[in-house]
Amino acid sequence: MNDTGDVQLALGSARPLEHSLELAEWLRRERGLQGRVRLAHAAPAAGELGAAPDLITVALGSGGIATVLAGSLATWLQSRRTPTKLRITITRADRTLEIETGDANEAETVIRRFLDDGDGV
Length: 121
Fold this sequence. Notes:
Blueprint: E1 6-12, H1 16-29, E2 37-40, E3 55-59, H2 65-79, E4 86-92, E5 95-101, H3 104-115
Antiparallel strand pairs: 1-3, 1-4, 2-3, 4-5
């Protein structure tokens, strides 16, 4: 896997801020991602003053961090008390992946493929 650069994650759900904060905290506790996760603001839409943090940025670096991220995202989805279908948008360099799923296995497979060196999904 090519683990260079940053990846941005955005969640689409009924409670995006709450879910983003939960996921960011989850990723920060992941041993291989410690110190690599931060919350950021998306650019405000026209007429908006700003928004709550709604993007999670993960610095991939090297050493298999993309694999750790994909596995951690899948585990987070699986651990949710109430199965929730979430829209996950991942942006990396000039590529964007958007999936809508509540299936942890599907999410992990698609995310790993996207973060791989190939052309992505």
